[in-house]
Amino acid sequence: MTEPVTSPPLALGLAEIQAAREVLRGVSVETPMERSRWLSALCGGPVHLKCENLQRTGSFKARGAYYRMARLTEAERANGVVAASAGNHAQGVALAGQLLGIHATVFMPEGAPIPKERATRGYGADVVFEGRYIEDALVGARRFAEETGAVLIHPFDHADIMAGQGTCGLEVAEQAPEARTVLVPTGGGGLIAGVAIALKALRPDVHLVGVQAEGAAAYPTSLEQGAPVALTSMRTMADGIAVGMPGELTFAAVRDLVDEVVTVSEDSMSRALVALVERTKTIVEPAGAAAVAALLDHPDRWSTPLVAVLSGGNIDPLLLGKVIRHGMAAAGRYHAMRVNIPDVPGGLAGLLLEVSDAGANVLEVVHERTSPTLHVGEVEVLLQLETRGQDHSERLLARLRERGYRVTG
């Protein structure tokens, strides 16, 4: 991190965020702060979850979008608005347009989650697909704004957007006044910038941590270079935080007010998402699970009491199924192994009986009779198993080897 500067990062402070809160009363939801006994035990102290997945439109984005659009002049409203988003900002802009009577057009990257697209259309916005990434969609949105006079509602890099998102920080300060660490999923930085401005004004001692997906982590390099730096490529399932370059305003706020930025892998987000479903009965999208993923990776790293923001819950059911399977595999709940058995009647039945007696569930069985690694009279069996976790899988492997089976995997 560079040394903090003495001047404020932008003309936005606590007073502006408090003003935004008054505008948002009756529009946005004061989302709950839930104590997690499971994470508290893991981290050795109180851990609370700030449930922005329960916000209107399913993410924190509704806060900033509505506040930004509520402050438009009548002339600006008459020309409509345009936005670029993978889905959460799109829904926030579309809902705000519906509530304020402003026509909205949203550019989305190709491959944006279908539920997010449908929800955006359901709020009355027009949807246009352009490019693979949010930056491509933003180019299209800017072009549309120049051609039509529509006001561009940037997904993160605007003071009003940051002020709206900062109202989440006001709620954190009130709901968890004893918090010593707050972890926030981070893409372009609108949420963590707003939260940082609010929290550091009220609780300057709070340790703020931004959490990015490894495959879309623009902040670490940008902070090292001292200015926003664009990624050359991105690859992550966490579309909610898949932003290839910080904004000028958000970068300044993160540089000056956020204590550290960490990254989490796809496996970590998958495990976190599965754990939230199992342990807290909470559905989040991969981006929404990023803060919890960081806690699972580093349970002893930060001081408690601790708050992890669940930034959004808009996940495609098909992706949810894939992530759950991937998360279970990453947690050792799914296990693939190859076992060599005698090619005799009852050979496979004997193997499956051993697996059953060990308490594992067989999902798939594949025979391989032709392989240079097989001895004469042997068959290789590929087993896909469901186990109770890594320890259980290791006990099963040991059991089979004790019984004389040649096992790999």
TrEMBL record:
Its EC top class is lyase
A GO molecular function held by the record: threonine deaminase activity
Signal peptide range equals none
Q: Which residues form the ACT domain?
A: 336-409
Pathway the protein contributes to: Amino-acid degradation; L-threonine degradation via propanoate pathway; propanoate from L-threonine: step 1/4
Please list the cofactors this protein needs: pyridoxal 5'-phosphate
UniProtKB keywords: Allosteric enzyme, Lyase, Pyridoxal phosphate
PROSITE patterns annotated for this entry?
A: ACT, DEHYDRATASE_SER_THR
- E.C. number(s) listed in UniProt: 4.3.1.19
Assembly, per entry: In the native structure, TdcB is in a dimeric form, whereas in the TdcB-AMP complex, it exists in a tetrameric form (dimer of dimers).
Sequence similarity: Belongs to the serine/threonine dehydratase family.
What protein does this entry describe? L-threonine dehydratase catabolic TdcB
